[in-house]
Each structure stands twice: as C-alpha cells, then as structure tokens.
Design brief:
The complex is a heterotrimer of chains A (301), B (311) and C (103).
Chain A: H1 2-28, H2 57-73, H3 90-112, H4 115-146, H5 151-157, H6 163-166, H7 168-182, H8 205-230, H9 241-262, H10 268-296
Helix pairs in contact in A: 1-8, 1-9, 2-3, 2-8, 3-4, 4-5, 4-7, 4-10, 7-8, 7-10, 8-9
Chain B: H1 3-28, H2 32-52, H3 56-80, H4 96-101, H5 166-186, H6 201-210, H7 214-235, H8 243-252, H9 273-289, H10 304-309
Helix pairs in contact in B: 1-2, 2-3, 8-9
Chain C: H1 5-25, H2 29-54, H3 60-90
Helix pairs in contact in C: 1-2, 2-3
Classes of the chains: A mainly alpha (301), B mainly alpha (311), C mainly alpha (103).
Chain lengths: 301, 311, 103
C-alpha cells in the first residue's frame, strides 16, 4: 500500500518535472542555434517516419529511457523525509540508472533503421565515453566531503556551508559534464538538426511524446542532482524544503542551459578531446584539492 | 510460505529467466546488435541476482560497467560485421530457437538476395547499407540450400555467425551444462549459515579494499592503465592503410608513405601504379604459398606521425 | 533466504554452458569475446552465491568479483584492440579465416 503510494508519487513528480522543464527550457534557450532535445519538431509525413523498423527494439527505446529517469528520480530528496527511497548508495545508483537513457537512445536509434537514426546510436555512445569519467570525478568531490553515498546525508553535510563554496572547480566540472549527459547545447550532436533531430525524426507520435518526457525530465534530474551535490538541496531559510529544492533546481538549470547555448557547438571528436584532455585532469586536480581541504579540517566534521 | 518468501522466489525466477534467456539469445540470434543487447540483458539479470543476494554495490557496479562496455562493444561489432542487423540472415532457415530470438528483425530491402544478381543493398536503410564492398558477386549463392547458414560461403565473405561445428558445440555445451546441473542436484547440501551480511556492505568493501586487498586493488588499477596503453598501442593507425597497400609496398620495396590527412584509409589511395603491377604478380605467388605473413608488420614504428596528424 | 543456494548455482551452471557454446560455435571474434564475458559472469555469480550462503561476514568474495569484472573489462579492451589490428590486416574478424599458418 505504502509502496503503491510512493510509486504514484514518483510518477506524479516525473510528470510535473517534465512539464515544468518543457516550458521553462525554451525560455532560457532563446537564441541558441541548435536546441538539442528541446527543439520543436512538428508532425511529419508518414513517409519520413521509420519505414522498416526492428519491431521490438524501436518501441523499446523510449520505454527504456523513461524507465531510467523514473528509477533515477527515486533517490532525489525534496525534503528530509520527502525522498521516495533513501538508498545507502544513492549517488552511485543515480549515475548507473541514468545510463539507461543512453541505452534507450541506442535501442531506439538503431531499431528505427533509418540512416539518420542509426547515427544517433554512434554519437550517443561516443558521448557516453566522453562524459562518463569526468562525471564520476565531479561527483567524487561531494562524496568525499560528505563521507557518504546517500543523497540525504550529502544534503545534511552541507548544513554549515554549501559545497559550491568549498569546491568551485568540482561545481564547474559538474555543469559541463551535466550538459554533456543531458544532450543540451553545446553538446547536441545526437540531436542535431542535420541528422533530423535524432530519434525525434524517426519516431511515431507516441514515441516522440515519451522521448520528450524522458529527455525533459533528464535535464530536470541532472539539475536536481547538481542542487543536491553542490547547492545544499532542500536547505534554506523561511520557505519550506521542496520549494527551495525546486528553486535551486531551476536556477541551476537556467545557468546551465543559458550558458551552454552561448558556447560554440562541439562535435563528438571535440567532445572526446575536451573530456580526456581537459575535464579529466581538472577532475583529478579537484579530487586532490578536496583531499587537501579534508586533511586541513575544512568542511563538515 | 510468507509473502516475503513468495516475493523472493518470484524475483529470483524473473531474474534467472532474464539472465539465462539473455545469454541464450546472445548465442543464437542472427542480429549482432541484438546479440549485444541480449548479453546486456543477461548481465543486468545477473546484477539483479547479486542484489537479491544482498551484494547491491556489486550489482550496480556490474550494470554500470556493462551498459557502457556493451554499447561500445556492439559499436565494434557493427563496424566489423557485414550484416550487423541480421536482416539478410533472417531470411534463411534457422533452428527454432534462432528463429525465436530473431523475431521482428527489420526485413531486408526488397531487391534482396533471393534474386541472385545485383546484390545492391546500399539503398535505403541504415543497417543494410553498412558495408557492402566485397559482396558484388551475383548468382552463385544458393540460399535456400540444405546446409542453412552452416554451409554458407559467399565467395570468401562468409556472413554466417556460427561455425560448421555448431552441432558439436551445442552437444558439448548441453553435456557440460547438464552435467554441472546434475552434479549440483546430486550433491545437495553445502554447510550454509543463516548469518546475514551487514547493511553497510559498501563501507565494509571499501575498508577491505583499502586495507587487506590494497595490493590487489592497486595492481588492478595498474592493470587497467596498462590495458589502456596496450589497446591504444595495438589499435593505433598503422603506416599502411590495409593489407593490400602493405603488400604493395613490401613487394615494390618502397618506403612507406604516411597516410594522407583528411582522407579515409583505402586500398587504392597511396599505392603508386608500378607497385600495383608488382602486386598482381605477387598475388598469384602468394596464393600458392598459402597466404601472406600477416601479424608482425604494420603497427610499427612509422605510425606515430600519422597518428598524431589525425587529431 | 527462501531461495536455496542450489538454485543460484544452477543458474550459474546454465550460464556457463551457454558461454561455452558461444565460444565454440560463434565465428566472429567479437562474439567469442562476448561468450568469454558470459563465462566470467557465471563464475562471479557462483562466487557471490557461495559468499552469501556460506560465509557472509567475510567480504573477500565481493572483492574477487570486483577484480573479475575489472579483468573482464581490460580483456575486452585489449581484445577489441587486437581485433581492430586483425581487421585492418585481414579484412575480416571471422576467426576461421585466420588460416595463414595452415600451409
């Protein structure tokens, strides 16, 4: 009974998050040249849809992506008691489960069996290789200071001071890799206009709806996790916890999307170069800095 | 049985079916992409079993390693395979299990293979148009033949995924699996305990990794580093774009030219005409002698400048 | 624990049999690598099942499984590198066409 209630709550939160993001994001994206997953893609002629799909994998793609974001939402805390499930290894679980979105993109892109959609699979996989190591390094700083993998404990550890103050380098790293993970500009290669907006171009209407739902909530999730890791989660004066959490999430989303849409677009090759030559060394330096801070006694005790 | 026990059996049954059926599908489906996805499903099923055995950290680790790893691996399969979508082989006669795991594959394009000549597959689709050099031999392909994919040889470009010893392999693995299961059933009892692991298993594993097994942990890190070096070293672009070009240079005794920048490595690009004449002579000789010496040449020393030039 | 140890071990045995089939019957080198991954996975499942039922206080089994997964990943990387090299040289990854030593 209680389990059902929680599941319904997660579903409702997912719908709300996707809806808010869907209307909020285009405002922040006002003058970007590529809009990535937020691009408007109108109805298409049936000839342009996938004409010869793999009958099992083409529908499985958006379902898999949606399952991924749904499972990821389980560990996001909106208040000290307002977390669907406080897993002991919550942050790690989040990283793992968000990978299902990449799996969904690959299944859907390959299964649609059009020239552009198969491209989505290649590009999404290359992007996964690009972001996965720096993303882990961006999480590790916060985990080291909080000495816990649980999202609730990480927020509790920021009672004195937000981690953004102590680890600005890690926060910047999180912004960049989060954009990469969410396929937002400037990392829109799998959703670029020249491959017909990726999976949108080869989806039936119900699939397109699920894709939008999944990708909008993906952006929300990544901003929310950023708020948990670096901005103190639900903590704040006066207003209740969930309101603070939503405020921080959308503020972070605005910063990410607005800043990203002003950066020059990057191809997949450039992305890999950026990841391995810049972001990974920066992440390692950040780990060293955080370790030094902990040894000096800064941060939560 | 209590509700918790029924739930546990139920979860176990689902996860066991996923992991075994996934592995079976990996070994039998006609589509290479699908077989990678099936393997991923199998891994995720085993990860679920890990969670059921209260090793949740390990289960998550497994999922994380294998989603990314399998996606990259499938990418390589698609690169190396002549029919990664399996749509051409899906037309052939398959055994029941293969047919089951190949259900719903995208069908081959209309001007497909049963019409003998032409083999013009490069038309519309994504998977079918992958790699169709070397397939332009028309008529001599008798697909509906009795041998199925076991005996199918498309003029040196054999596209089937299974070896001719398939039946023997199936028999052997059946005997092996059946024997193991029989052994397990005949020897039912290990001394098991009722103790439960502590819920803080992540912390315990971390402490163990950093104390007792520190050496193993660090050497695993070193192993991965060396693995990265090795893979990059082995796979880095060689001085010669492919075998024919290398044979041409070796035959004509010319110094190797680096691969030109911005140009896809192809056989015909950098070979001067006089070398090509030589190679036709040498081709005949080589066939008699039984194939070229292959493994020890090309990833050699001259590669570095072209490798750097690519970036 | 409602599910007995033998049930987990049977799943491991079945996976092992399928892995052996994949390694022997498959013709493409990538598929053979995948068969090896299934074998490693069956071993990991057995290790964890024994850990849980026989000695759950000692976490060494989980460490061994982590090491197995690591080695599997390294093996996959090196294997794919070698395969790229072979493909560049021979134009195929079908292992039964690597017959240049056959005379």
């Amino acid at each position: 009974m209680e389990l059902t209630l929680r599941a319904l709550g997660v579903l409702a939160a997912l719908g709300l998050a996707a809806l808010l993001t869907h209307f909020f994001e285009p405002a922040a994206l006002s003058d970007a040249q590529e809009r990535g997953p937020a691009a408007p893609a109108g109805p298409r002629a049936p000839a342009e849809l996938a004409s010869n799909p793999d009958r099992w994998m083409h529908p499985a793609g958006p379902v898999m992506a949606l399952l991924g974001v749904l499972f990821a939402l389980v560990v996001i805390p909106f208040g000290p008691d307002l977390v669907p499930s406080d897993l002991g290894i919550g942050v790690f679980y989040f990283i793992v489960v968000v990978d299902f979105v990449v799996l969904g993109l690959s299944l859907g892109g390959w299964g649609a069996n059009t020239r552009n959609s198969v491209d989505v699979y290649y590009r999404a996989t290359a992007q996964l290789v690009a972001y996965v190591v720096p993303l882990g390094l961006a999480y590790i700083g916060a985990i080291m200071m909080a000495r816990s993998l649980s999202t609730v404990s990480i927020v509790e550890a920021q009672a004195g001071m937000w981690f953004i103050v102590l680890q600005p380098v890690g926060f910047a790293l999180y912004l960049v890799t989060g954009l990469m993970q969410a396929y937002r500009p400037p990392f829109v290669e799998p959703f670029a206009a020249f491959i017909d907006h990726g999976v949108y171009g080869a989806s039936f209407p119900w699939q397109a709806l699920l894709w939008r739902l999944a990708l909008s909530s993906l952006m929300f999730l990544i901003a929310a996790m950023g708020a948990v890791l670096y901005l103190g989660g639900w903590r704040g004066p006066l207003l209740p916890g969930p309101v603070w959490m939503l405020l921080k999430t959308f503020a972070l989303m605005a910063v990410m999307v607005w800043g990203g849409s002003r950066a020059p677009l990057l191809t997949t090759g450039r992305m890999l170069e950026l990841s391995w030559k810049v972001l990974t060394p920066v992440g390692l330096v950040n780990v060293l800095l955080v370790g030094a801070l902990i040894l000096l006694g800064v941060g939560p005790s | 049985m209590s509700f918790a026990e029924v739930a546990e059996w139920f979860a176990f049954a689902i996860l066991a079916v996923i992991s075994v059926a996934g592995a079976l599908g990996m070994a039998t489906t006609m589509s290479m992409f699908r077989s990678g996805i099936f393997l991923m499903a199998s891994f995720i099923g085993v990860a679920g079993l890990f969670v059921l055995l209260s090793a949740d950290l390990l289960g998550l680790l497994q999922v994380m390693m294998y989603i990314g790893g399998m996606l990259v691996m499938i990418l390589f399969m698609v690169l190396f395979s002549h029919d990664p979508g399996g749509s051409m082989m899906a037309e052939m006669d398959m055994s029941l299990i293969e047919r089951f795991f190949s259900l719903g594959l995208s069908s081959p394009p209309d001007e497909g293979m049963e019409h003998g000549d032409g083999m013009d597959m490069g038309g519309s689709g994504g998977h079918e148009g992958m790699e169709h050099e070397g397939m332009e031999h028309g008529d001599g392909m008798d697909m509906g033949g009795s041998g199925g994919h076991e005996g199918m040889d498309m003029g040196g470009m054999d596209m089937s995924m299974t070896t001719p010893v398939k039946r023997w392999a199936a028999a052997l693995s059946l005997v092996l699996g059946g024997g193991l299961v029989a052994l397990l059933l005949l020897r039912p009892a290990w001394p098991t305990t009722d103790a439960t692991p502590s819920p803080e298993s992540a912390r315990m594993i971390g402490e163990l990794l950093m104390s007792k097994y520190m050496m193993a942990f660090e050497s695993a890190g070193l192993l991965i580093l060396i693995g990265i070096f090795g893979a990059v070293l082995v796979a880095r672009p060689g001085a010669y774009p492919d075998r024919d070009a290398r044979d041409a240079y070796v035959t004509a005794d010319l110094p190797p030219a680096p691969i030109e920048e911005g140009r896809p490595p192809s056989a015909d690009a950098p070979v001067p005409p006089e070398a090509l004449e030589e190679v036709t002579v040498n081709e005949a000789h080589r066939d008699k002698a039984g194939g070229p010496p292959s493994l020890n040449g090309p990833a050699g020393h001259a590669a570095s400048q072209s490798a750097e030039g690519d970036n | 624990m409602a599910v007995p140890l033998t049930a987990y071990l049977i799943v491991g045995a079945l996976l092992f049999g399928i892995g052996v089939y994949a390694v022997i019957a498959q013709r493409s080198a990538v598929m053979i690598l995948m068969g090896i991954e299934v074998l490693l996975n069956a071993i990991g499942l057995n290790l964890i099942a024994f850990w849980r039922f026989v000695n759950p206080e000692d976490y060494s089994a989980q460490i061994f499984t982590i090491l197995i997964v690591t080695i599997g990943a390294v093996e996959m990387g090196i294997g794919l590198g070698i395969m790229m090299l072979l493909y560049r040289n021979r134009g195929t990854v079908q292992v039964d066409q690597y017959d240049s030593l056959k005379g």
